[in-house]
Amino acid sequence: MKQNLPYIYTDKQVTPWGGMHLIKDFYDRTGMHKQLRLLPLIEKGSAQGVDHYEIIESFIMSVVVITVNHKHLQILF
């Protein structure tokens, strides 16, 4: 399912919190959170185990944040 996610450019400075908010909005609008919950993952084995979905979401967000923050490095290569 292809969605158009509108965005606009601005001359205003974006704080780190504002940038994370934009990423969170994008994540919510794509519906990825709901789609991840539909995956047939193995149940966690211990009472203190971390939810598999949280691990996957954390990995995705870390990749997105690193990619956004280091995009300017492509100029060097």
Share of helix among residues?
A: 40-55%
User: What is the residue-averaged pLDDT?
Assistant: 75
Q: How much is the radius of gyration in Å?
A: 16 Å
Oligomerization state of this entry?
A: single chain
Shape: elongated
The structural class is mainly alpha
Given as residue ranges, the uncertain stretches (5+ residues, pLDDT < 50) are none
Quote the distance from N terminus to C terminus.
Answer: 34 Å
Task: Tally the beta strands.
Answer: 0
What is the helix tally?
3
Count of the domains: 1
> Which range does the strand content fall in?
under 5%
Give the ordered list of helices and strands.
HHH
If you had to describe this structure to a student in words, what would you say it looks like?
The protein is mainly α and 77 residues long. It has one domain. Helices cover 51% and strands 0% of the residues. It has three helices and no strands. The longest helix has 18 residues.
What descriptive keywords fit this protein?
single chain, 77 residues, mainly alpha, 3 helices
Question: Would you summarize the structure shown here?
Answer:
The chain is mainly α and 77 residues long. The protein is built from three helices and no strands. It has one domain (1-42, 51-77).
Topology at a glance:
Elements: H1 16-30, H2 32-37, H3 52-69
